[in-house]
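Section 5: illustrative case.
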């Protein structure tokens, strides 16, 4: 990866063991601990960002729209299955989802985004943040995605399957498309459904906002923090990359999820030339 993709003058990814690097990493960890989010504005060199966004726009037409509504727990497909719950319960609620995603197997390896995703600088940086070895997600479709939202595009309140989500905004919309979240609203011990329900009803006072600019890298603890993207306004698309990393060297998503989010072509591929391990 050419060094100029990342703004190394601002972010010391090449010198994480230096005094400056250690101080910066402490700030990153503190931010994640305090509110579950850490932003890195101007993380990408401006010239590289322009090329990266242009490359993303060139394949945006390949994005599959996926479901048009989903619950906050749409990665936990069977959570609450068989339970007699009221319609107001978060497990029974669905919100509007209006976005399309380009799957990893459709993103060329020579794209700057692909090179950034696979770079040792990113793996070493995230490993230093987590204190654990970090690996590329091995899923052939879910490992690296480009999310595309046009006018009216949005994403419902939801939780992520992974605990540390890495995203990069490639192109900001003219207005709207604001990332909103409630940090650490649930835990392994407590789903805290009452508080989640209050967010869905618009009654929770702990909602924070990240108004992202293009070129901003984000680290986010999305497994425990409820979050959404508000509707996009204007003609310019909101284009964001989701970079899938894991502390497991052999992480794959489910075929069910890939078919749901990337369309029937995934089912056809898996039927004739499977990419998932047996």
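Designed sequence:
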């Amino acid at each position: 990866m050419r060094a100029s993709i990342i703004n190394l003058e601002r972010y010391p990814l090449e010198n994480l063991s230096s005094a400056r690097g250690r101080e910066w990493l402490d700030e990153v960890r503190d931010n994640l601990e305090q509110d579950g989010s850490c932003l890195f504005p101007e993380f990408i060199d401006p010239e590289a960002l322009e090329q990266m966004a242009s490359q993303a726009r060139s394949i945006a037409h390949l994005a599959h729209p996926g479901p048009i509504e989903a619950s906050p727990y749409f990665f936990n497909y069977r959570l609450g299955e068989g339970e007699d719950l009221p319609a107001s319960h978060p497990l029974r609620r669905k919100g509007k989802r209006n976005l399309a995603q380009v799957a990893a197997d459709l993103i060329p390896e020579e794209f700057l985004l692909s090179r950034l995703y696979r770079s040792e600088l990113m793996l070493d940086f995230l490993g230093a943040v987590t204190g654990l070895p970090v690996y590329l997600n091995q899923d052939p479709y879910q490992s690296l995605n480009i999310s595309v939202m046009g006018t009216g595009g949005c994403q419902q309140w939801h939780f992520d399957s992974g605990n540390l989500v890495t995203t990069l905004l490639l192109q900001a919309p003219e207005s709207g498309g604001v990332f909103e979240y409630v940090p650490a609203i649930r835990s392994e011990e407590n789903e805290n459904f009452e508080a989640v329900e209050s967010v869905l009803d618009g009654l929770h006072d702990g909602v924070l906002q990240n108004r992202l600019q293009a070129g901003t890298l984000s680290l986010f603890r999305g497994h425990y923090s409820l979050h959404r993207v508000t509707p996009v306004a204007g003609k310019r698309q909101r284009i964001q990359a989701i970079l899938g990393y894991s502390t497991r060297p052999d992480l794959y998503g489910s075929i069910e999820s890939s078919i749901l989010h990337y369309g029937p072509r995934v089912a056809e591929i898996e039927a004739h030339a499977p990419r998932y391990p047996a």
